[in-house]
Amino acid sequence: MPDLQGKIAVVAGATRGAGRGIAAMLGEAGATVYVTGRSVRGQLSDMGRTETIDETAEIVTAMGGLGIPVRVDHTIESEVKLLFERVAEEQNGRLDLLVNDVWGGDSLTEWGTPFWESSLANGLLMQQRAVFSHMITSYYGAPLMKKRKSGLIIEITDGVNYDYRGNLYYSLAKTSVIHLATAMAADLSDSNVSALALSPGFLRSEAMLEYFGVTEENWQEGARKDPHFIASETPWYIGRAVASLAADPEIMRKSGKAFSTWGLVEEYGYQDKDETQLHWGDYYAEVLSKEG
């Protein structure tokens, strides 16, 4: 297990899904994690979900780290600025890891509809939530790392290349943050601060469990609705990938590149919640590619 005792992390967009899994696994490794998002107890966001950053922070602490919830709308510059001022003040200027996982685009994506027939307003809002928010967050987070000449920024995305993802606005958002990581890595190359992109496989998030009408206890039954669900992974899996990256002493070698949970497991050997080592890439090659 990676040892992140004494490390300071910010996980932006940690209310649920991959962000919650990442924060939890950083807690498992002993890190102090600032858990940010818009949903807090008594004040939920417009996503229509019940999960809160308060719950995520409690999970981080229960796993062995220290979870600190901070309500932040990462599309609002002033709120992001205040977040990193707080981190700098409370942690003596230290920030070891920044994970940009803000998304908010599921309800905005119109699958199967060409872009000129889709809602332009929703498409632009998706870029604001999933790309601009990452730019704003890195703008204020990176200087803390540069000053100490140490740190890692991880962009959470979908896929490891620039191929079309089936919807123009979705594709633009997911590929943009891959290049954001590449560009940040170039600018930070002389500071010993690295930046990279990371993709999960078929993520078995809270929303996906609800969509398939199952729980984590009986999730395999979801394969009756979609056989590919059998190859899904929990948010813990990408969380353990992030923890492994954060503990890697040779992380600068990975700076500027895009990685996946299924690719990194071959190097780091982490396991999912049920002790499996899933490989979405192999599944795609063996099953999905043949269907296509």
UniProtKB/TrEMBL annotation:
Transmembrane segments: none annotated. InterPro entries: NAD(P)-bd_dom_sf, SDR_fam. NCBIfam families: PRK08303.1 (NF006159). This is NAD(P)-dependent dehydrogenase, short-chain alcohol dehydrogenase family.
